[in-house]
Amino acid sequence: MPHSFQNRPRTTSGADASASLEILTAKSQWLRRTLFEMVMRTRKGHIPSCYSSIELLVALFYGGVLRYRHGKPNDTGRDRWIVSKGHAAMALYPILADIGFVAESELAQFTKKDALLRMYADPEIPGIDAISGSLGHGLGIASGICLAAKQDSRSQRAFVLLGDSECYEGSIWESAAFASHAGLDNLVAIVDRNGLSIMGRTEELCRLGSIEDKFRSFGWEAVTIDGHSYREIAEAYGRVGRTGGKPLAIVANTVKGKGISFMEGRSEWHNRMPDAAQQERAWADLETNCISH
Predict the structure, then answer these.
(1) What is the domain class of 4-285 according to CATH?
(2) Neighbours of 103 (CB within 10 A)
């Protein structure tokens, strides 16, 4: 099994540099391969839930959107990022190593006893801003961060990745109402709309309908995009801070398990591990880039 981290595409980190489409695409492939390697080492983790959000994360950290300084996780002025769908928080770990927030050696220790990098995110990990194992809390935490920034006259922003089935939680909509009322235009909610939960399809379990319309009804600016298209992601991120005083919701239509053919769109792979033959098939799939343009 290759050590993917050593072959990562190089970029300049931070808000003052945005990578080309070619580099972002390569970053997507690198991140999927590195995550697969991490999970196969200990056979713990949620591959499909991470893979649906890869392009959203890569564009945020390497596309000149998120404001941070390489190797400075304790910078009080950096933007905040919360993976509220906590089972996908491990998708951040290779990125945090790549931008100098944690040691690269920690990736090999993922989920091992006394390791820094756990199954679910924890603020003890540099660059992790909230515990997110229990669903439904990330948007409220981010709302508090954004309100404090407003009250302190700071330009800090917060970005929150939500799962679509997480939007069943009433706390999401309580936070949405509060954020609109408080005029938190420094808050961005990104909904990973892959249409699946661990139990099946969201629209068959309890219909969500148009999540964009729901956020708009709470007074948010909202847009629906292809969550694997860097062009559409860039256009959506370009709306940040240009919403007329409203928080922004980006509903990203994605494919759960994107990049591994036999996992794509299959709820039974939520936390299932591939056997040896399936691992070989997965590695073959991960040799190619799978995003849309």
Answers:
(1) alpha beta
(2) 12
Q: Which residues does residue 189 pair with via DSSP β-bridges, in sequence order?
A: 160, 249
Please check whether residue 8 is in contact with residue 98, taking contact to mean a CB–CB distance below 8 angstroms.
yes
d(Cα 37, Cα 172) in Å, to the nearest integer? Answer: 33
Residue ranges per domain, the chain? 4-285
pLDDT of residue 3: 43
- What's the confidence (pLDDT) of residue 11? 54
Q: What angle do CA 281, 286, 292 make, to 5 degrees?
A: 125
What is the pTM assigned to this prediction?
0.93
Write phi, then psi, for 253 (nearest 5 degrees): -70, 120
Within a 10 A sphere around the Cβ of 36, how many other Cβ atoms? 24
Residues of the chain by 3-state class (helix, strand, coil), percent to 5: 40, 10, 45
At a CB cut-off of 8 Å and minimum separation 6, what does 273 contact? Answer: 39, 43
User: Per residue in 129-160, pLDDT tens?
Assistant: 998 888 999 999 999 999 999 999 999 999 99
DSSP letter for 292, please: B
CB 41 within 8 A of CB 109: no
Of 159, 117, 112, 162, the C-alpha closest to 136 is: 162
Sign of CA dihedral 26, 55, 203, 282: positive
Per-residue burial over 241-265, b = 16 or more CB atoms within 10 Å of its CB, e = otherwise: eebeebbbbbbbbbbbbbbbeebbe
Which of these, 135, 90, 98, lies nearest to 116 by C-alpha position? Answer: 90
Calculate the CA 236 to chain-centre distance. 15
Q: CA quadruple 267, 250, 137, 120: dihedral positive or negative?
A: positive
- In which band, very low, low, confident or very high, does the pLDDT at 98 lie, cut at 50, 70 and 90? very high
For residue 237, pLDDT over 70 is answered with yes
Q: Which residue has the tokens 């005029």?
A: 183
How many whole angstroms separate alpha carbon 185 and alpha carbon 206? 30
